[in-house]
Every structure is written in structure tokens, then in C-alpha cells.
Design a protein that fits this description.
The chain is built from six helices and three strands. The protein is α+β, with helices and mostly antiparallel strands. The protein has one domain. The protein has a three-stranded mixed beta sheet with strand order 1-2-3, with helices on one face. Strand 2 and strand 3 form a beta hairpin. The relative contact order is 0.16.
């Protein structure tokens, strides 16, 4: 989908459906070693997020949050909290440029819930009741503005970088 948009940026795709990522087991190995004990794709994905100049999370809405994305958020929380990086200036994801896009079969969906959760990974002073991180995209009227076309919405945000 995005490759066909011919964007003037180098892109690295992580298709979560093709990854193996487990939920956190609360073993706290990450607190001692700065890496996760579980043998799955998390460390690779985390490394890509750290190296990225911009992070786009694009997700269909089949459930509130798809299971692998939930597992990723859970593991990010555990790693950043256990290593005492969350909510500090030493967080390697701090102030990353981020856009979150959510869609279902017939429309662009409001991504507020995902933004509320994700902002704790990229900022200090985050809140759980309002989106107070400056994301690259704002849902207000996006579905109408882009005529239900998620690709046009993503392209518009990407070209604004």
C-alpha cells in the first residue's frame, strides 16, 4: 500500500502480522541487562524504532488495539519503565516524530486511544486522559477530508515532513 505512494523518504516497514512478539512476563531481566529475556522480534523492532527519524503506526481496527501491537506497547512499557528510562530525558524514543493512523473497512478511524497509550513512550509529562503530545497528524475531519482514503491521509502527512 505505502510503497505505491512513491514517497520521497526511505521507509522501513514492520508488518506486525509477520512478527513474533510475546506479552511481557514481568521477569525484570530488562532492569538488569537493558534487554528483554524473551526470544522474539521485540529487540529488533525496538532497535528500528530507536533508529527511526519518524514513526508511523498504521493499524486496522479489528479490536480496540490489535494483539501484536498491544504486546509491543506492553513490552515498550516494561523495558522503558524497568530501565528507568520512561518519563526521562534519557529515553531513546523521546521526542520522536510520530503519526498514528487507524482505519476500518469503510473509513478512517479516530486514533485518539492509540495516541493516548503511545505518547508515554515519546514524551515526559504524559497524561492518560488527553493527547498532549504533538503528533504529526490530527484526526479532526480526516475521514471527510480524505474521502475515507487512508492512503491519501498517510501520503498527505508524509509529504508534509
Amino acid at each position: 500500500m505505502l510503497i505505491s505512494l512513491n514517497l520521497p523518504h526511505e521507509l522501513t516497514f514492520i508488518r506486525m502480522a509477520d512478527t513474533q512478539i510475546f506479552g511481557c512476563t514481568s521477569c525484570y531481566k530488562c532492569a538488569k541487562t537493558n534487554s528483554c529475556a524473551l526470544d522474539d522480534d521485540f529487540e529488533s523492532i525496538f532497535g528500528k524504532l530507536v533508529m527511526a527519524d519518524v514513526i508511523f503506526i498504521i493499524t486496522p481496527v479489528y479490536a480496540v488495539i490489535p494483539s501484536r501491537l498491544t504486546a509491543l506497547f506492553e513490552r515498550l512499557t516494561s523495558l522503558l519503565f524497568s530501565t528507568k528510562l520512561m518519563n526521562t530525558v534519557n529515553n531513546p524514543l523521546l521526542n520522536k516524530k510520530v503519526a498514528i493512523f487507524s482505519y476500518c473497512s469503510s473509513q478512517i478511524c479516530d486514533e485518539k486511544d492509540l495516541k493516548l497509550i503511545f505518547q508515554k513512550f515519546v514524551m515526559t509529562g504524559y497524561r492518560f486522559d488527553i493527547v498532549n503530545y504533538e503528533y504529526l497528524n490530527d484526526f479532526s475531519n480526516a475521514d471527510e477530508e480524505f474521502n475515507h482514503d487512508i492512503c491519501e491521509y498517510i501520503k498527505n502527512v508524509a509529504l508534509s515532513l
